[in-house]
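Work Package 4 report. The design task specified in the project plan requires that, given a folded chain encoded as structure tokens, an amino acid be chosen for each position. We show below one input record used in the internal validation round.
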């Protein structure tokens, strides 16, 4: 995805797939905390410190509709996360464009996403699939709706620490059928990254990140566990849920800052649904703040303005590689 837009509409300066049998998904029934009762006395309780509302931007030259679930305007408040964008598109989508110095986590909410890049990766992702892309030293890629039909995605930008800004590029297709799921008493944790309930998500991290989709049926409680030193966000994708006593509805994002003096030990936050006829679905991610300077330059995220200038220079001079001349998948 190219650079997201801010509320004023301006650009913000911030392997091939194989068929998968989606019916063999690992499921394990555990209590909602995923921890034994004799460990509860060590657990710190989290709060929600602030709430962001969905910012609707509407259509533009690339997408049929766009919204920001949280914006890149105050990276010190979202560190290590940069922006979360909701995009719905058919054509043209996001044609060839570069990235450097960040990771993108793309969640397909609906439809089929076609992806390709200049180092040979090409394929499609379907509803529920996640792609974790590391754009370290520089990559050129595109994200399109397969056959120009429909793709509805969320894309989270995750920062890379200064010492890993120029790491090798990497793609991880984290298919819905292959991720661990933890179910208990009307709650469900679909684990993408990090640990929960004795399971480890499939994503490999340069900076430790915990990520999952949480689902609660009506009148249910889920105590979600996270490292105490992490900053966490909880974006409500559908329904209404009370998180640490704060009620959030569809499109709102609640933030839980690191606990004072918190380390890698466990903390917990309670999510509850009321007596309604709709389940709640929440995207929950957390990571320890990097506390480093953040400089945006369109699709590049570095630590200094000089590094942004160099990134643009390297892209224009071909150091990212050539822009591919790759046929669309429907024509192959």
């Amino acid at each position: 995805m190219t650079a997201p837009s801010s509320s004023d509409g301006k650009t913000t300066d911030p392997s091939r797939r194989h068929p998968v049998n989606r019916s063999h998904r690992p499921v394990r029934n555990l209590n909602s905390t995923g921890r034994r009762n004799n460990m509860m006395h060590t657990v710190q309780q989290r709060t929600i410190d602030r709430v962001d509302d969905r910012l609707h931007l509407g259509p533009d030259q690339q997408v049929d509709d766009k919204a920001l679930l949280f914006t890149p305007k105050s990276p010190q408040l979202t560190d290590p996360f940069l922006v979360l964008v909701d995009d719905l598109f058919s054509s043209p989508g996001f044609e060839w464009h570069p990235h450097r110095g960040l990771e993108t986590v793309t969640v397909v909410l609906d439809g089929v996403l076609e992806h390709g890049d200049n180092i040979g990766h090409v394929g499609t992702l379907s509803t529920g699939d996640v792609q974790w892309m590391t754009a370290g030293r520089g990559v050129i890629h595109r994200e399109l709706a397969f056959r120009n039909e429909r793709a509805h995605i969320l894309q989270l930008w995750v920062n890379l620490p200064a010492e890993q800004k120029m790491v090798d590029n990497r793609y991880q297709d984290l298919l819905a059928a292959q991720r661990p799921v933890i179910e208990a008493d009307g709650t469900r944790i679909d684990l993408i990254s990090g640990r929960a309930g004795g399971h480890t998500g499939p994503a490999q991290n340069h900076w430790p990140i915990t990520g999952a989709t949480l689902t609660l049926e009506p009148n249910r409680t889920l105590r979600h566990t996270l490292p105490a030193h992490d900053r966490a966000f909880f974006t409500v994708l559908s329904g209404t849920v009370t998180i640490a006593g704060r009620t959030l509805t569809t499109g709102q994002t609640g933030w839980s800052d690191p606990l004072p003096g918190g380390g890698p030990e466990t903390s917990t936050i309670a999510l509850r649904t009321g007596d309604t006829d709709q389940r709640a679905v929440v995207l929950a991610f957390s990571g320890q703040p990097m506390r480093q300077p953040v400089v945006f330059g369109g699709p590049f995220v570095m630590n200094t303005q000089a590094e942004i200038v160099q990134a643009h220079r390297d892209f224009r001079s071909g150091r990212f590689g050539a822009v591919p001349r790759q046929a669309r998948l429907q024509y192959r």
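Residues 6-40 have pLDDT under 50 and may be disordered. Validation will be extended to a larger panel in the next phase.
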